[in-house]
């Protein structure tokens, strides 16, 4: 009887471990879908960001005024842009580069729909000497 009881407890413990691992994996996958990596191209965000900087983006986040936003270029949907949210209304945002001379932004293509945003930049993680929260 004790042998049967021990076997049942051992089986239950293994099932619990598998359940825990499965739910942890599901949580990690869900968390990973909320974030996206992004590499800065060009100098439109100088001096805040430089070409080659790598960022972590929170997908689907609603921007606040002053936050850095990533969205598809209205002129070429395959190309992503990063700009600063200057004015945010209920459904649209004015997107401007920190370096206006080198930036193509809302002055050229108009307002960006909040629904079109990929997300908001949270963290600059590379180069490692300049890691910081954005």
Structure description:
The chain starts with a helix and ends with a strand. The chain has 2 helices and 8 strands. It has helices spanning 2-33, 106-109; strands at residues 35-39, 54-59, 68-73, 76-88, 92-96, 112-113, 119-126, 132-133. With 134 residues, the protein is an alpha+beta fold. Strands 1, 2, 3, 4, 5, 6, 7 and 8 form an 8-stranded antiparallel β-sheet that branches.
Provide a compact summary of the structure.
The chain is built from two helices and eight strands. It is of the alpha+beta class and 134 residues long. The longest helix has 32 residues, at 2-33.
Quickly list its features.
alpha+beta, 2 domains, eight-stranded antiparallel beta sheet, Umud Fragment, subunit A, single chain, 134 residues
- At the fourth level of CATH, the homologous superfamily of the largest domain is Umud Fragment, subunit A
**Number of H- or I-type helical stretches:** 2
Record field, number of beta strands: 8
| CATH architecture identity of the largest domain | Ribbon
CATH class of the largest domain: Mainly Beta
């Amino acid at each position: 009887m004790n042998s049967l009881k021990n076997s049942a407890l051992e089986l239950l413990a293994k099932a619990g471990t598998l359940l825990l691992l499965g739910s942890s994996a599901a949580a990690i996958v869900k968390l990973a879908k909320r974030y996206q990596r992004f590499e800065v191209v060009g100098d439109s965000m100088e001096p805040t960001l430089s070409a080659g900087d790598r960022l972590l983006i929170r997908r689907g986040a609603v921007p606040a005024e002053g936050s850095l936003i990533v969205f598809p270029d209205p002129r070429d949907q395959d190309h992503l842009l990063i700009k600063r949210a200057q004015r945010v209304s209920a459904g649209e945002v004015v997107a401007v580069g920190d370096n206006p001379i080198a930036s193509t932004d809302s002055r050229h293509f108009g307002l960006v729909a909040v629904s079109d945003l990929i997300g908001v930049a949270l963290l600059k993680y590379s180069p490692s000497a300049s890691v910081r929260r954005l």
